[in-house]
Structure prediction request, 263 residues.
Amino acid sequence: MKNLIFFLGGNDAEMVRIFEVLANAGIETVNKGLGWGAHASAYADEIASAGAEGKTVVLVELDNSSAAKTEWTAEKVAVTLPEGTIEVDHHGDRSAEPASILQVLKLIGAEPTHWDLLIAANDSGFIPAMEAMGATANEIAEVRASDRNAQGITPEKEAEAEQAIAKAETSDRLTVVRMAHSKCATVTDRLHKGAGGPGYDQLLILSGDGEVNFYGDGKLCQNLKEKFEGWNGGSGLGAEGGSAFWGGYPNHEEVLAFVKESL
Prediction:
């Protein structure tokens, strides 16, 4: 095996599992516990040092693009990556690729456990993907609880989500939830039929911190990113009727109008 050194991106259940797998295998890993949308520049010095030592750098879900500062994100400056750097991801343009945990396991020559496959399914296609692989209700609940815990969701945020769901606006295919924070798993987990909820067709979450998130049609998720920027992913991204997600920080009412027009 090459002299690999892993640098980990935003924390969720998958990233926690990746850290565990690498630690158990005794593989060098640098993990700063970053949030979603993590950028490689957070590890600029460490990456440069690893390259100088001849190590093979592996970035796991770390964006390394350059982007000017906007009203909702700080300026991002790309890091000069050492020759042979490996970039592991399965979001955005790479959404058709295996989940990051599966890519990491392949890199280190390890076979996925049942838990790894559950984590991979959850990260790529949420509850429907876990149901498709035959996961039990208890397994789904355990994975989703692990994901929320990794995201640092507090009991207060869980309670806020319950109150917001009680005031949800539903019309035709669309359910709209307005809440103070943007820890959307508190809503999606409670609403999804696979987790014992009432279910939803298309879900739009408008958060008081400025974030907007949409869960539903894959083609619409692609169109939302093209119109409003932000991020997207999911196994059905780009496909009409597919299951995907999109998020960003545009004007809430403009997004709401666009979604209603599109459905």
Notes: The two ends are 50 Å apart (CA to CA). The beta strands are 4-8, 29-30, 56-60, 86-88, 169-171, 174-179, 202-207, 212-217, 231-233, 243-248.
